[in-house]
Amino acid sequence: MAMEYQSYIPFWDRLTADQQERIGEVIRYQKVKKGTFIHDSEADCLGLVVVRSGQLRAYMLSEDGREITISRLLEYDVTLLSASCAMPDMQFDVMIEAEKDSEFWSIPACLFKNLSDESLAVSNYSRNLLSNNYSELMWLMEQIMWKSFDKRLAEFLLEEVRLEDSPVLQITHERIANHMGTAREVVTRMLRYFQSEGLVRLTRGSIEIVSEEKLEKLR
Predict the structure, then answer these.
(1) Phi, psi of 214 (to 5 degrees)
(2) Residue 40 Cα to chain centre, angstroms
(3) What is the pLDDT of residues 44-74, one digit of tens each?
(4) In this structure, are strands 200-203 and 67-73 parallel, antiparallel, or unpaired?
(5) Model pTM?
(6) Nearest to residue 168, comparing CAs of 135, 139, 209?
(7) What kind of fold does domain 147-218 have according to CATH?
(8) Which fold, 4-145?
(9) Which strand (E) or helix (H) includes residue 4?
(10) How does DSSP classify residue 199?
(11) Beta carbons of 177 and 183 less than 8 angstroms apart
């Protein structure tokens, strides 16, 4: 377990032996339960996060307490959204929580910043990673502004089916609202419409996808 992180760090083979050793001295492995908060805007800077297993959720929190999901992080995914202290261009606060029991490594932000200054490979990687993060955020904003909610919800449900590998989703309307940056009542209203159209079947605490084909046509 201790050395397994090497195969999860995309730029590992392009580091010098000294740089690899420095990572090995400070990299931190964590195993967390579902629902654990990994990072928030008021916590110490976590650094570069590399997911070994499970599922993490990165999201933003508005001033009025409304959440909206930016991205999901699965095995082998890497994020710098938890390293804002080392990324002066990052002008927004991000929260990260475990959606499932998860394992991950973190490289302290100060070391990652030093590696970026020393290594062109790490610098290019961090720049591309941040660019992808901003692209995800811009795509999300476009979806909210220009795509109708029924299409966004259909897309979300299909993504959940893929992640859970099951047509029965154990998820509440409140949780969906948190992912999508809207009110629970809006989600409930649209899900009831979906049910009347034969797309889903609603039960307490779960949603069964009745017709993926209809959802696909709607998205």
Answers:
(1) -65, -40
(2) 13
(3) 678 899 999 999 999 988 777 788 898 899 9
(4) unpaired
(5) 0.79
(6) 209
(7) Arc Repressor Mutant, subunit A (1.10.10)
(8) Jelly Rolls (2.60.120)
(9) none
(10) S
(11) yes
